[in-house]
Amino acid sequence: MEAQKESLALLQRENEQLRRAVQELSTLLDLSRAIGASLDSHEIMRTIINRSLKATNAQQGLITLVDRDRKLPTATLVRANVSSTTHNPFHLTESLLGWMYLNKRPLAVNDPRHDERFSGVEWEPGVESLLCVPLLIKSELNGILTVYNKKEGAGFDSNDERLLAIIASQSAQIVENARLYEEERALLRMREQLHLAAQIQDHLLPTKALAIAGYDVAGKSIAAQEVGGDYYDFVPMSEGRWAICLGDVSGKGLPASLLMANVQATIRLLVSMDLTASEAIARANSFLFRSTPTEKFVTFFFSVLDPARNRLIFCNAGHNPPYLLSGNSERGLRTEGLVLGMVDGFTYRQDTVELRPGDLVVMYSDGVTEAVNLADEDFGERRLLDVVREHREESATSIVAAIVDAVQTHGAKQAQHDDITIVVLKRTE
């Protein structure tokens, strides 16, 4: 009789194990189908949590992804939370996060407030029990799957640990793949936006050389990134005059390009007011001082070409002095003004030069002279002037192209570190 009872008990245990195994396989198969059909990481995580709650008979679940690339590996990157109750969502404590980061194995805590491993930890009200398992990618902790409060007051057992660990093992790579896919999509969207910004910026700059009787004016700007902070412009004024300017916004990339567009709009507005060069720059400085962060500034060279009188009136706000080549002489066009946006109320002064036939003015940004070669040597002003002298008899467009070619040849295979902008003004007759 006792033997029959033992055999019956053994059979019942085996049936229970078989039933549980079938249930686990059904859960895993169902989970595999559900999460394999989506690339939405949050949807995948919610599905994983729902299946985990059902598998472990828990009330609430949480997936926390950690950023492995940060200096603080326990910094939370993403959270997804699902609850079968109306209780406020629980949060993974820093202590649990740190424990899991160090141990990388399942952790059951069935009496949180008396567990010696977490003495001193302040648990959220309502947390009665919890089970954490790691989401591992190549043995590195990528996230943590946690379920809270086993229903009917029971604690989580070894079967719950094993099943939840299998779910985590099956899910970790899928969650990571979905997250990477979303990051890639976001990166592609950002690149599309940058490409559109680059197109817009191209349209803000002059599209062709400037045709003025007796003068030849051309410019070119090459951004170090998709968009840049250099700016040049040719703006018509009254009495046949032209504002010809070149500026360099501090920094590179999208932030610099946004400020550059702001500078362009400001300068064009001031030019339309028919102000003197020094007045225009003073007002631009005050506007930028009030509307830009303190760490942002703009070096700027503003000039007004008066073809009727063959003179160039200019104001230099902290920019590389353009070179005037006249006959056998060369000089930098300086007025000792501060960069724009640094000191409000600064008084700028202007100067004037007479232009004779064959005279040449070369404006440039520091991306030209500070371009380096493999030996870390700057292109420098000497090389710039050598190129200009060599091509002096050519058109302004050809001189600009020659300078660009020389700078890029000097840089060889070095990445371009700064925006390159050049404007050449030549009196032809």
What can you tell me about this protein's structure?
With 429 residues, the chain is α+β, with helices and mostly antiparallel strands. The protein folds into two domains: 181 residues, GAF domain (Beta-Lactamase), CATH 3.30.450; 232 residues, PPM-type phosphatase domain (Phosphatase 2c, domain 1). Helices cover 41% and strands 25% of the residues. It contains nine helices and 16 strands. The strands form three sheets. It has a six-stranded antiparallel sheet with strand order 6-7-16-15-12-13. Strand 4 and strand 5 form a beta hairpin. Helix 2 runs antiparallel to helix 4. The chain is elongated. About 1% of the residues have low confidence.
Write down the secondary-structure element order. HHEEHEEEHEEEEHHEEEEEEHHHE
The CATH homologous superfamily name of the largest domain equals PPM-type phosphatase domain
Number of strands: 16
Q: Roughly what percent helix? A: 40-55%
The spatial strand order of the largest sheet comes to: 6-7-16-15-12-13
Overall pLDDT, averaged? 83
CATH fold name of the largest domain? Phosphatase 2c, domain 1
Structural class by SSE content: alpha+beta
The number of helical elements comes to: 9
- Major pleated sheet: 6 strands, antiparallel
Note the gap between the termini. Answer: 124 Å
What is the architecture of the largest domain at the second tier of CATH?
A: 4-Layer Sandwich
**What is the general shape?**
elongated
The low-confidence parts are: 74-78
CATH class of the largest domain: Alpha Beta
β-strand percent reads 15-25%
- Total tally of structural domains: 2
Tell me the radius of gyration: 35 Å
